[in-house]
Amino acid sequence: MNLSIEVQERSALRPNSRDGLGARANFIDAIKFLYRCAVADHLIPQGNNPTRELRRPAKQKSTRRPLTTAQLSEINEVAATTGIDPALTALIIRLHIETACRRGGSKALRPCDLDTKQLTVGLREKGNTVRDQPVSPSLMDALLAHERYRAPDHDRTAQLLRHRNGRPIPITYYDQIWKRIGRILPWVSTLGVTSHWLRYTTLTWVERNFGYAVAAAYAGHVQTSGRTGNTLTYVSATIEEVAAALVALTGEPYPLAAIGPQ
Length: 262
Fold this sequence. Notes:
There is one protein chain. The protein has 262 residues and is mainly α. It folds into 2 domains: 2-48; 69-250, hpI Integrase, Chain A (Orthogonal Bundle). Helices cover 53% and strands 5% of the residues. It contains 12 helices and 3 strands. This is Site-specific integrase.
């Protein structure tokens, strides 16, 4: 317990930090897992596991909230007009706003995941989830142009998003984006805005305008064993309904969009 408190006290301070509670919780999860493995491998008896009574600190309410239209406009303006590669930054920001994907999903995107007939991108995200996410015609054109100019001769199963020299972007590129935007827009740094805030913003808008089931499908959330998950087994949204939300969000036509109740 004393060591977990020390980890909390020595954790890095960030604008959106919660007094080190996250670092402490992660440490407790890691040390409990370590001792569970030791018990499973018969290195120590269960009765000698010192982490049995160790509990994570109470989870704090997230400070994340939907961004306003004005804030999104500022972010898009800075992304598209500053830095050494504004075209790439603007494309990434737009991809996250339009699809509500996680950064792992956008980084894992491959040219073969672009379905130009159905206007969908195949997103592979955490939990080994895979889904076809509708995108607007103009975003699909932008993704195809990115591939054409930056990786014309690469394997279509390789990473799509790349620097001008053809090198695939690392996961740290996303952190660099927000650090740079935060230097120009101080409120971004103060709030600790990241790519996940864009996902939060889009999904909140979809839920308010199209309901929980469509928002859950838009997010790519998997069904759980709880009551809410059981209900979604019967009322889960179709890809056509997700596409209808996309049309309302982007103002662009889409071939799969549902006009009304089917």
